[in-house]
């Protein structure tokens, strides 16, 4: 599904990403984790076609990415909802832009509202919604377009802990039913361990390692020892300094 080969990117003369290589199969999820400023959001923008690499290539379904794809959904940190449009019309917008018929729009939007359990909010405006409700609308706006790839940049960071877990469960459940591929950028170790079939650790624009999460999708995962062991491993990887030694100050976080 996604092939990233020797990817390099710089803002002006400042190198942001160094020789990034990734491979994500159809139906898999990739969590990209790292500290602020490590380049993880830039990587997501490159996968979305919002930025162009200086070197290397991104392929999606064996096609070199040359711009924004119709079947890539993007969910950003600030939700990106239009405040002057109702929930229904925020979900319908992408379909209208693509010239969908009125009956098709009604069917797809109504289905998304029902799946996300926000049908009762369809006539409300974003200012009337809670953070979790806004996030569901943002997810719905992508899902009505039937993406085969969903790209998310810190989508749950502004939510309280319980709402964040609820949204993580929701994304996982929808992905299991619809079998799309998704990439999640996060700084939250527990979130990466829960949602990442693969987990790429990035530091200073370089991939430190890519871990396979053998516990991905297990029932009651958050209660299992393997979940906590994976978080400990990720925490250790994120606290390594350039010499491969533990930075005690970061390791205690």
Automatic annotation (TrEMBL):
Transmembrane segments: none
Gene3D superfamilies from the UniProt entry: P-loop containing nucleotide triphosphate hydrolases
UniProt GO molecular function: ABC-type quaternary ammonium compound transporting activity; ATP binding; ATP hydrolysis activity
EC id: 7.6.2.9
Entries under Pfam families matching the protein: ABC_tran (PF00005)
Keywords attached to this entry: ATP-binding, Nucleotide-binding, Transport
Domain ABC transporter positions: 2-229
PANTHER family in the record: BICARBONATE TRANSPORT ATP-BINDING PROTEIN CMPC (PTHR42781:SF8), SPERMIDINE/PUTRESCINE IMPORT ATP-BINDING PROTEIN POTA (PTHR42781)
Protein name: ABC-type quaternary amine transporter
Organism: Halanaerobium saccharolyticum
């Amino acid at each position: 599904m996604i092939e990233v080969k020797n990817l390099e990117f710089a803002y002006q003369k400042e190198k942001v990403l160094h020789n990034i290589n990734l491979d994500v199969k159809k139906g898999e999820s990739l969590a990209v984790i790292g500290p602020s400023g490590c380049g993880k959001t830039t990587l997501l923008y490159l996968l979305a076609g919002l930025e162009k690499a200086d070197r290397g290539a991104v392929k999606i379904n064996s096609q070199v990415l040359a711009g924004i794809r119709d079947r890539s959904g993007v969910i950003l940190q600030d939700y990106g909802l239009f405040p002057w449009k109702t929930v229904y019309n925020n979900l319908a917008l992408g379909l209208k832009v693509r010239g969908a018929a009125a009956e098709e729009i009604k069917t797809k939007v109504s289905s998304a509202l029902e799946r996300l359990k926000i049908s009762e909010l369809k006539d409300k405006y974003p200012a009337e919604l809670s953070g979790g409700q806004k996030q569901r609308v943002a997810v719905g706006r992508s899902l009505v377009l039937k993406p085969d790839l969903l790209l998310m940049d810190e989508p749950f960071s502004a939510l309280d802990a319980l709402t964040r877990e609820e949204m993580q469960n929701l994304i996982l459940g929808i992905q299991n039913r619809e079998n799309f591929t998704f990439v999640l950028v996060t700084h939250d170790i527990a979130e990466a361990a829960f949602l990442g079939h693969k987990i790429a650790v990035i530091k200073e624009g370089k991939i430190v390692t890519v871990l396979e999460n053998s516990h991905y999708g297990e029932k009651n995962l958050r209660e299992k020892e393997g979940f906590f062991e994976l978080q400990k491993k990720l925490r250790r990887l994120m606290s390594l300094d350039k010499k491969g030694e533990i930075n005690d100050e970061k390791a205690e976080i």
